Amino acid sequence: MLIYEAISKNFSCDEPILIEDIEKLFPDKSRPWIDKAIRTLVDEKKIKRYSTGIYYIPRKTLFGDSVLSANKVIQKKYLSNDNDIYGYVTGVSLLNALGLTTQVPNSISIVTNNESSRGRKITIGKQDLYLIKAPTTITKKNCAVLQFLEAIKLIDLNDLDEIENNNLIRFVTNNSITLKDISKYCNYFPDFVSKKILGGHLIELFTQ
């Protein structure tokens, strides 16, 4: 079948395939045609439906068809693909990733271009998510500075110990974040975020 040949050529086993991805492969086909073709592939067990609008090509294992990872789905749908970045984690998940807390969140908060609400809860697999509309379009170029500003919004700089402070500085230097970058994007955050930076010890890092 033409649609399966195109899907198997463009996607690997156990890779999330979004309905939008399939539509891009067949720009001249209508959505009803695509939906019908996908239902046929699912019925023939050539692809599997993970959830609404999400499919994958399963691997054969000793225990039957492979199960798609929820983390892969979250990554593809809300964070990034091979070509672009369109989301990032925030909240405790972000602080944990930056080494600013050892607390482990029960749910993951994500700021993403692929959300239109100010915040809503969903579940993918067994993972609870809280999705938040991006304050501005997230790209490869601005993702790090937006994450930095998110982190500053969440923490008290005076409460950081030496290790945490060094972790924050390392993130800034590794991502070459400048005061110009901060000035460009701080307007998308509450005023106290820029005041924390300009009035705290971090300003020395940006003015060296």
Explain the overall architecture:
Helices cover 44% and strands 16% of the residues. By secondary structure, it is α+β, with helices and mostly antiparallel strands. The strands form three sheets. It has a four-stranded mixed β-sheet. Strands 1-3-2 form a three-stranded antiparallel β-sheet. Helix 6 (143-154) crosses helix 9 (191-199). The longest helix has 13 residues, at 31-43. The termini are far apart.
Structural class: alpha+beta
What spatial order of strands do you see in the largest sheet?
6-7-9-8
Return the string of H and E elements: HEHHEEEEHEHEEEHHHHH
| Uncertain segments | none
* Count of alpha/pi helices: 10
N→C terminal distance: 61 Å
Q: How much helicity do the residues have?
A: 40-55%
Global morphology? elongated
Q: Give the averaged pLDDT, no decimals.
A: 91
- How much of the sequence lies in strands comes to 15-25%
Radius of gyration: 21 Å
Q: How is this fold's topology laid out?
A:
Blueprint: H1 2-10, E1 17-18, H2 19-25, H3 31-43, E2 48-51, E3 54-56, E4 60-61, E5 64-65, H4 70-79, E6 87-90, H5 91-97, E7 108-112, E8 120-124, E9 127-133, H6 143-154, H7 162-174, H8 179-185, H9 191-199, H10 203-206
Parallel strand pairs: 7-9
Antiparallel strand pairs: 1-3, 2-3, 4-5, 6-7, 8-9
